[in-house]
Amino acid sequence: MGVTTESEGFAHLRSADPILGAILDQYGPDGLRDRRAGGQTEHYDALVRAIVGQQLSTKAAASIYGRLADRFGGRGPTPQEVLADDPEQLRAAAGLSRAKVTFLHSLAEHVINGSLELDKLDQLSDDAVIAELTAVKGIGVWSAHMFLMFHLERPDVLAVGDLGVRKAMMLAYGLEVMPDPATMEAIAASWSPHRTLACRYLWRSLDNEPA
Predict the structure, then answer these.
(1) Per-residue pLDDT for 188 more than 50?
(2) Which pTM was predicted?
């Protein structure tokens, strides 16, 4: 988990893969949009936002998270506050689904009972972080990958479950269908240890694609 700069990653990816390199050249080293950060500095807040935002557009997720924060004085709730709140009132106030309220409860319970030790995540390997997070009901591999990429800022994460990355790979590499995880891993073998940056450029390459 060594620290590298984006400029080093850019140079590596351009030389490692001509197809991906063409995408990088199209947008340049400064051509990425801001990272998908939600403003959270604490792990728990970031995971709450990840649950709230599942299967929603960025705008809708921000709106619902804003309503959730409003319920707790303009900030994200603590685990204790989530469990103390009435589930139906919490759901109605924030515009959450019942499933997401259940997921928030699962996260809070895991934190309070110590089965998810948030302060240790920084020291764990990527695979160990994924294992810890996916033990929480409602946090899947995709959410764990996003947490690794944009909250922990791990440099070598390949988001194999992300539809955007899969579509971008299909288009860039002339595939007939969106690739499965094994195909994605094979294509991305030369990208390591900068697969997070590669994914960000793949997302960027979709900006001008028709919906």
Answers:
(1) yes
(2) 0.87
